[in-house]
């Protein structure tokens, strides 16, 4: 019997493997995330972070293994499973000939956001991320940070339960970066689950309820910062990271 929403984990990954032309980018990843977790995935370039996130969103198909979102098997019910996800890729794309507002509207349509919720939520998000009148200009003229703010708005508009973010802070100014941090902490309080891949260790230290260290396609360690400090014998997050990723 399929677990009900309340008793299911937000995300279950079992023995996930991904092969690209004979190269194993993921070699059997297992992970379970519950409600209200902020899990930060750390690891060197090429470790398999983006691949993991793309497999969860269904942008890539696993070579082996299973993924459940809210207890729903993404292979069996992909559209339903994906309706619970909000995703920001490592290189967010906004159609250049759309305005920010048009882009958000498009995404809201894909997620079937109800008309009565749309304007209220949008105004709240615009306020939170300091979105100005530029939202009605073509996105081709936006700065990196303006695009990132549009991306944050489209991410949250459909009220996702599981939020997946690949490198959230790159290119954000300090104020917007702080807003993003505060937003994640608030989302956590609201019971949302967040999976973040980042190289920004200070951000990981501040925000993570649990961390995972991935290297060569394997999740080598998972735990709280305190637990990883004990395993590595180091105190500072940079030292912990370097110790746990050394081969
Ligand atoms: N479409 C693809 N075809 C072939 N190889 C790929 C493909 N996507 C990823 N890889 C390989 O899989 C490995 C993991 O890549 P991935 O993008 O997941 O790393 P990452 O941990 O996100 O790295 P970074 O920190 O640089 O973003 C790399 O060796 C990469 O070259
Ligand atoms: Mg990556």
UniProtKB/TrEMBL annotation:
SUPFAM superfamilies: P-loop containing nucleoside triphosphate hydrolases. One of its GO terms (molecular function) is ATP binding. Residues 11-241 form the ABC transporter domain. Gene3D superfamilies: P-loop containing nucleotide triphosphate hydrolases. It holds the Pfam family ABC_tran. It comes from the Bacteria. Keywords: ATP-binding, Nucleotide-binding, Transport. This is ABC transporter domain-containing protein. It comes from candidate division WOR-3 bacterium 4484_100.
């Amino acid at each position: 019997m399929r677990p009900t929403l309340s008793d299911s984990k937000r995300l279950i990954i079992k023995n996930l493997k991904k092969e690209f032309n004979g190269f194993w980018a993921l070699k059997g990843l297992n992970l379970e995330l519950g409600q209200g977790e902020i899990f930060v995935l750390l690891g060197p370039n090429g470790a398999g972070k983006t691949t993991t996130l793309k497999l969860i969103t269904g942008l890539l198909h696993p070579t082996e293994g299973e993924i459940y979102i809210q207890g729903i098997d993404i292979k069996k019910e992909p559209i339903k499973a994906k309706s619970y996800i909000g995703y920001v890729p490592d290189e967010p794309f906004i159609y250049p000939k759309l305005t920010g507002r048009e882009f958000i509207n498009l995404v809201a349509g894909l997620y079937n956001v109800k008309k009565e919720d749309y304007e209220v939520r949008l105004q709240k998000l615009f306020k939170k991320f300091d979105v100005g009148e530029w939202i009605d200009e073509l996105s081709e003229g936006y700065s990196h940070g303006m695009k990132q703010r549009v991306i944050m708005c489209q991410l949250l508009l459909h009220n996702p339960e599981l939020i997946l973010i690949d490198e959230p802070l790159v290119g954000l100014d300090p104020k917007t970066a702080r807003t993003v941090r505060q937003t994640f902490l608030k989302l956590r309080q609201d019971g949302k689950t967040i999976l973040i891949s980042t190289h920004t260790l200070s951000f990981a230290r501040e925000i993570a309820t649990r961390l995972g260290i991935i290297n060569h396609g394997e999740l080598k360690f998972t735990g709280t910062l305190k637990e990883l400090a004990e395993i590595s014998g180091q105190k500072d997050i940079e030292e912990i990271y370097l110790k746990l990723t050394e081969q």
